[in-house]
User: Fold these one by one.
Assistant:
Number 1:
Amino acid sequence: MSIASSIEHIIPRLYLSLKPPASLPRALPLSRAHRRLFFRPLSAPIAASVDSTATKDNARPPSTDDDTLVSVASERSLVDVNPPRGTRDFPPEDMRLRNWLFNNFREVSRLLSFEEVDFPVLESEALFIRKGGEEITQQAWAEIVMNELFSYCQLYNFEDKGGRRVVLRPEITPSLARLVIKQGKSVSLPLKWFTIGQCWRYERMTRGRRREHYQWNMDIIGLSKVRAEAELIHAIVLLFGRLGITSSDVGIRISSRKVLQAVLQLHSIPEHLFAEVCVIVDKMGKVSRDVIENELMTAGVSIEAIKGIIEVLSLKSLSKLEEVLGSEDEAVTDLKSLFLLAEHYGYIQWINFDASVVRGLAYYTGIVFEAFDREGKLRAICGGGRYDRLFSTFGSDDIPACGFGFGDAVIFELLKEKGLLPDLNRQVDDIVFLLDEELEGSALKIVSSLRQTGRSVDLIQDKRLKWVFKHAERINAERLILVGNSEWQRGMVRVKILATRDEFEVKMDELTAPS
């Protein structure tokens, strides 16, 4: 068998899986034979492509123009300029809005005396899929898969170059728990921490749901009393107020995981079904009752118990819940305490009891809450609750804790819907316009002096004055400072106040503040 026919058998398999490069370096020489080998139609035999030029007596030698160099213009293709599906770019106008929202997150956190922390976006995969050091049984794995956050299929996970399994974090609370455990006894409880971080989930996109988003988290670690939840809800209400959102626009549904626990105990449902039942009933209001009932039956819940669960979780009155569970029930006493605290804080009109709120995450243990738009057009704006048993799943002693996550995507949708997004134009204090090139050094001294006083300055040269005035209007400049020969010879510069159109000459040392 000839070399060419041997290649014939090997390369087609590679050819089907590898595409030729979209473009090649300008100086890369390729003979006619090589070009026919790599850019031939799939149906053309390789041996023929090689031999047709290599064996002919009259084959002309490669030229230095059309055959030796591959034309960049003909092979060039524009890179896809869109970000990966489900992600976003932030051009300047969007960054101004993002910074405005983040500044409000930070200001509310400051008002409640929280400290800011941060964590790597890249975390160990084990942090998000382990189950308390136990063997992951089939049932435990089913719970993980059913839970939309910890579903393995929704993790952006991979093996790094060192062979370690890592993940782009889908949420922040496990990272927070890791840091608290790492800090150990070097910190005193309670901790009041907040962060604003990016999260990644490979999931189906809908309005207000992307594959990456930024999330404001506030957590209180080491406080078991319901006052911690009351503080967190107060933070959410304060933020809504700062953004111009009222209690007629948004409400906060409140319940407790202990309500569902009590109902399951009433119907003698095994404890190991609790997490799975939580995930199912968290869909109440999002899917039909028939779907909920069928999923509960599939999980092994009896028809009688299903009826009891749905009846209790349909309650919207705390007094009726008390009639069912009794005034001494732990869930009832916690909820009554929280509603009393809400009256003292002054946000009782924002909250209402809704037993169907259980939150889908497996680690919640007590009071849970979520904010919603009263028109029902959007998914939950934010949500959180108590997670007193999370730390033991990482091998540490349990610490009482609660917190919430508040994403940027849904709140922006709501603000758009309500016409509450601010008009944040670019703003610059001064434009320094150089009229004569020989004064460039002097103009730079002026620019440097102004910037050192804290003023923002845009230096412009080589433009027409008409363009400069339009540019000043676009960026909302306060002053236009003209550096020209005639004024400079007298130790002056010309200043134009753009809002009033007043124009005058001033000395350089008088430029540090507007006239």
Note: The first strand starts at residue 115 and ends at 116.
Number 2:
Amino acid sequence: MKILKYLLVYRRFLLIVLTPLLLLPLPLIIKTKEAECAYTLFVVAIFWLTEALPLAVSALLPAFMFPLFGIMGSKEVASAYFKDFHLLLMGVICLATSIEKWNFHKRVALKMVMLVGVNPAWLTLGFMVSCGFLSMWLSNTSAAAMVMPIVEAVAQQITRAEAEADMLEMSCSNGSTNLALELDENIGQSENSDWKEKRKQVNGYDNDMGSTVCTIEKENEKEKEQNLPPAETGRKSREDKNSGIFKVMCLCIAYSATIGGLTTITGTSTNLIFAEHFNTRYPGCQCINFGSWFVFSIPIAVIILLLCWVWLQWLFLGFDFKNMFKCGKKKTAREEASAKVIQDEYKKLGPMSYPEIVTFVLFILMTLLWFTRDPGFFPGWSSLFPKYKGYATDSTTALVIGLLFFIIPAKTLTKTSNGESTAFGYTPLITWKEFQSCMPWEIAILVGGGFALADGCEVSKLSAWVANKLTPLGSLPLWLVILISCLIVTSVTEVASNPATITIFLPILSPLAEAIHVNPLFILIPATLCTSFAFLLPVANPANAIVFSYGHLTVMDMVKAGLGINIIGVAVVMLAIMTWIVPLFDLYTYPSWAPNISFSNSTGL
């Protein structure tokens, strides 16, 4: 037992030491560059999946392993760790830092909830829409962390309102003694008459007397429960319903934070990793940008969000159309309590401050510049620089706007009663310290490690070898290949981080598409979207963990709900990739920017 205890305590250390040693025969026996690159890839992938080392530390392994194996020079590997992706990420984090600092996110969330009303079902949808909208521009974790305290306040206020209503009903029922006596007499009479009937039934079944009497006793207990005072029965049913409402509200925040991130390239790190990998591997294709991604992903997110809302309502509350769409009916205690909390929270914010207005204007400006850079259906602003076509990317816009947050002052001149202007000390909208606290450096290094691995696979010809071995999959129907890749990615991302999962699979799926002579976007887009579908477990992604920490959910609640959302997500992505995404990128045509791979050279791997 002692040995097992020590093994359990030092399991991470043993994994770190044994993984490279056990895989060492691969490069020693098969002495090729492909085998050496595969060894590096396996070691890094295992460390990423198990998180034996921090993700960023594991991502640094190729920086010294590739030079030692003679695959790439140290300078070449180092250049892979900082790409256009990192500049885009820095610009977006500048915006997110200002939004969080000046509480603009809270104003947006509360306003959206106020617009949809306080009916429990519509209130849930309001929280989902507001959280989903925030996660389009902020990280999924930040969006969930921002909205969840508002949800908790509303939930607690609902509980208080219901408790007060219960106390009022109980006091009224205790005061009406005559009604209570009549109720007790009726209950006693009904019990006596029922017992007489059941005894008659028992006399007819002498051989099975014991089991029948037990059955009667159980039925009698059930009837006593059913004959509880109406106030008590109502209180129990309301407690069960409140518990269901809490679960729905919590889960809707966790899931909408993830779903909202699907809609923009900057919405989640997996989308950014895909965009950088795709643009690096296929530089001749300029079809993936902020606008094109938004056009095909917004219908996917909207459909999944609505179906998620319906699924959660049905699973925990039942889908009551009559109460959902009631018009002109008086608000219940719960609805009035919810409305009061939301209105009070919004009033506390006061009128929009100067920093909030500037942040909002810069946010709108950044979004417009992203959409109009190269929309495709009309000449964008990038056409104003015909000599430098392709030079400006989405990161250019993000950096220009991001820089303004460090320049524009956070306070304006104010006039005193004498009419003189008073100048405050110059402070920009955000400071470098605030930016650093929001910047996800671990993700930045992790993505850099993924780019280094991808470059190593190309240089060592490991990608070509993988593509050669995957060629037989071309005999399968295309929809089945896409479905298999989606299901594999969705399963892995439940136990591994989303960025690590997409970083591992992109260098595998790209050669697969080239090997079976299919437009790479046909496989890469659905796989990228499905990488975000980590809905099953509290540890699957940070948004789930934040919501689970509030104590309203069990693991089984998340598994039940998450399994349904996973199925919905994969089904909607499959529908999208086979319908409206096809004409956007002409997916049924093998593009000229994708390589035509020939497999004349064989390796010993």
Note: The chain has 29 helices and two strands.
